[in-house]
Each structure stands twice: as structure tokens, then as C-alpha cells.
Write a structure and sequence with these properties.
Strand content: 15-25%
Number of strands: 15
Number of helices: 15
Structural class: alpha+beta
Radius of gyration: 24 Å
Order of helices and strands: HHEEEEHEEHEEEHEEHEEHHEEHHHHHHH
Length: 449
Amino acid sequence: MTDSATACKPNPYRSTGWADAFLSVYDEQKLMEAERQQPADPRTSFQRVSDQHAVANRMTNGLVWTGGYFSGQYYKPAFEYVGLKSDENPLFKLFITKTNRAFAGLQSGRDKDVVEDATEKLLALDEPYITVNGDMRGVIRIDLDCVFDSIEHMRMAVSACLSEHAGIPAMPNFAVSHISATNKVIRPHLVWLLENSVCFTAAGRAAPRTLFSQVEKGLCAALVELGADPGGLSNSGRLKNPVSPFWHTEVIAQAPYHLDQLTCSVDISVSEQSLTKKVMASAVPDGLASANGETLTSNSFFNVLRSYAFNQVRLFKSENKEFSDFAEAIESYALSIAAAEQKTRKLACNVSGRVAAWVWQKYDPSKAQKARQQRGLLADEVKGLNLQQRQALGGKSTASRRRKASLMACRNVYSALISQDIKPTQKAVAIGAGVSERTVRSYWSALTS
């Protein structure tokens, strides 16, 4: 990060000036896009007519949601949305230009883990999750695993974190999130828009690509205290869709950025190793005073909360309650075992928010059932063994299952890279599979054979 103020150019656009300039050519750009050779359309005639009917119905009657959960955890009451959300702000239209066309890489869906190739872009733009153009990248997304008390609380917290790295923070253009019934902001995606996208194809220059990646890591590092997820950087092209009526999109910064502007607001020297260390260091405090006056170590406090959260999550999931309800319950429990001092309570809330988000996301009823079945499979083998011998046998069984799961994950990522004509590297496989490079190296011969 440079200390030279002259190296940082101010945003040359006022919000209205940028909007006027952009909108004056927006319609023309759409016409030019329509005149270009369109991607091959694999649909049958029936599918094409059906999709066109769906588009006409959407434009006439709007988006109709009968109420319920989407993405497994967010409840949205019934609503009808007439018109297009992209008409509400010029930045929304700019965001649309950062996405692909149908049949040319655009994917969307109701669940972040299940997105499909879009057949009609207008319909895809309604879906809660969407992918942006990976060849020409003009969107930076940071995922916050955190719950804020209000929109204003979120703004102040983000501003405070970013201000530590620059006098004037480069605030995101959007915060895209679910708003609970109690007005809490649930796990927002922060989005920065670049006016000029960065080319990530072989035709693009290496320096802008590197700078783009460093800015991503810098923003993530600056927001670690708020639960910024470094794992999300490996899949930052998929995000909560700012122009989807399913989310609340809070517009914060009114004009897009140039990449060099963002370099002045973050530390671009952050490495993957230092980012990981910062995340681990901020996961839990060094220690917390308990309600009884004793000191709880970070590990013990974390483990107590995690155990309690796992005991509660099945009940909340089975009753189709919202994540915000679960987070409040974990926070209440954390405060009940923490001291009354303001600092201690703040740290307790910080830890409880991270634990709640992690457990809610990781809990899988099928895996829990498998774990119970696995314990049953070992029942005969542990008969007659003492506690130490039982623990050793259970540890070996768990380690074996984890090795198999890691190998399978690495194989899936390796095959996916091959299918996309991308040369697999140990680093790429490690990032995609969520394991260490050391683990990938141990499996490499099995993957390449």
C-alpha cells in the first residue's frame, strides 16, 4: 500500500454525472449487443416458446412469490414485484453489464450451491444468486458471515473497519442481504463495481489481474473483524444478486470505482498466509471473563458455544425458523455465561455471531444421521475397551472418513478443471476442494494417474 497521496486519484465522477454519462449510452450498448452474433441456443422449439411466454408473463404480471424459504434458510413472505429492480438505480444497470449473456456463461438459481445455466437473462436477473463475467471482471464481492442489528449498524461497522486502512474508506456500492422480521441484516455480500472491467483471459495483461486479486484480499483482510470469509474469494463470481427482488440491496457508494482508487484504501501487500493468520487470530478473543468471575480461555468459550449451537440447530431447522432467530439464541446464551463488562459482552457477541453462522451453514441433517450410524457400526468393536482405547478407535475411523472425503473432493475439483480446459495445479485444486496444498500433494499421484 503506497503512502503517496498523489498516487491515489479521486473519483472523477459525481454520482449524477456518472449516471448521466452511463445512461446516455446504455440503451445503445444494448442494441449493439443484440446485433452481435448470439451464442448457440440449445433449446428445443417448445422450450424456446415456453421461455418466451415466461418472459412475457414476467413483464406483464411481475414476479410473484407465494411465500416460503429460499436457499434453505431465508424466509420471504409472499410478494408481487412489478417492473424491474434494475430500473431503480443506474448502478444496477451497470451491474447487469458485468454479467454474461444467456448461453454464454450466465448462471443463476434460488440456492447458492445450485445454480444453472440461464436460458433467458431477464428471468435470471430475478433469481437470488447469480454469476458475473469471469473473463471481464468488474465486480468485487466480500462475504460477511455476520449479523448486524440494523442497516445503520452495518454501515458504521464497515466504515470503521475500512477507515483503519485509509483516511476516506472506499465504501462498497452495494450491501446485498436478507432483512429479518426484527430488521437485522443477515450475512450481507458487499459489492464494489469497477467502471472498467479487468480482462482475465490470455489476452489480458498480468499486472491488472494481479492487482484485482490483491485488492480482493486487501478488502477481505480489512473486514475480517466483521466475519469476512477468505474462502469466498475462490468463488467470488457467484453472489447474492443485487437486482433480485428477493434481497434488500442497500446502495452505499453512488459511483463505480477505478481499480487504482481501491488500491489506496486497502493493504495490497496481504498474502494468503497472512490473511489466514489474521482470520484465525480474530476468530476468538484471547480470553473472556465469565459471569462467575473466572477466566474462560478462547478455546473453551468457543467450544462451549459450538457445542450448544450444534445441540440447538437441529431444533431450529426442523421448525423452519430463520437464521436470525438461531443467531439471537446463541448470542443470548453467550451473554448468559459472559461477564457484564461492556468489553467482555462485545467479544462474546462477536464470537457467538461467528459460531452461529458457521454451525448454521455447516449443519447437515444427513451427515448428522450418518455420524449416528457410524457410531452404531463401531458399537461391537468398542465392547470391552476402556475410554482411551475407544477414543483411539474412533479417531482412526474419523481420520479414515476424512481422508476419503478429502480425496473425493480433490478428484471432483481436478475433473472439473480438466472439463473446463484448465490445467490443474496443486494450488487450484487445494483452493477448490477446501484443503491444504500439502494434502493435495499427498494425493497428487492418485489424481493424475
